[in-house]
Amino acid sequence: MKIQILAMTAAATVAATAGASDKIVIDGSTTVGPIAKAFAEYYMAANPDVNITVSESGSGNGAKSMVNGTCDVAIMSRPMKETEFKAAADKGIQPVAHVVSLDGLPILVHPSNPVQELTVEQVRKIYLGEISNWKEVGGPDKAIVTISRDTNSGTYETFAKLVMNKEKIGGKCEYVGSNGAIRQRVQSTPAAIGYAGLGFVDKTVKALKINGIYPSAETVQTGEYPVARPLFMYTDGYPKLGTPLYQFITIHLTEDGQEMVEEIGFVPVTAY
């Protein structure tokens, strides 16, 4: 696996300046988690004296961890809210956003579902409960099973803003705790519909065209795909140059970092 190869060669490309007591604690989004874990593996291969832990408790909990001073990096799949900034500022913490990747939110269905595309409006009506059977959008005569991320998720917040236009999801929707859980629910339920990060699309689920645009790295990068977002890592202030935290938080700007982001399935913010 390319990420493992990158980790093995990282010692040649990242300066090992850390001391024995250095550690970096990361908490937050399950979407950004795979990127943080890949970067952590890469960095620790070059700096074995640095211990990096990554917890995936959701974007909202990542922000809370930063406010409470229990993490060094809050990983989030949505921007930090004004209330979260204020809570941080009240404790003398100054969150600084680092955009580490771009991402789309593909709308996922079971591979056996003949529906190939929907509009944003149709997806909204499905989640409102106004469209409740696949035959209403060209599919089989089956009741639609809607799956969503839990409301503490940054992925949920993005979907609520870009698709639901802040309207409340219908009462029959099922809520799950991670992007992986949505994929698992959709792949095992022929009548299901869900949404997850671009990196969670594989052969076990089918991503639909939305407004005629297929979700891909290219359509997310150009802004054509209508349900897309930046992914963030937040630190308390800008890290001091040369520190392990600075080296970690800037991995996404390197060629190796770009390759890791692409291999996981997301869209890098740099191009080499």
From TrEMBL:
Signal sequence annotation: 1-20
Organism: Pontiella agarivorans
Family stated for the protein in its record: Belongs to the PstS family.
Protein name: Phosphate-binding protein
Cross-referenced NCBIfam families: ptsS_2 (TIGR02136)
Record-linked InterPro entries: PBP_domain, Phos-bd, Phosphate_ABC_transporter
Function: Involved in the system for phosphate transport across the cytoplasmic membrane.
A Pfam family reported for this protein in Swiss-Prot or TrEMBL: PBP_like_2
Residue ranges occupied by any PBP domain in the UniProt entry: 14-240
Keyword terms: Phosphate transport, Signal, Transport
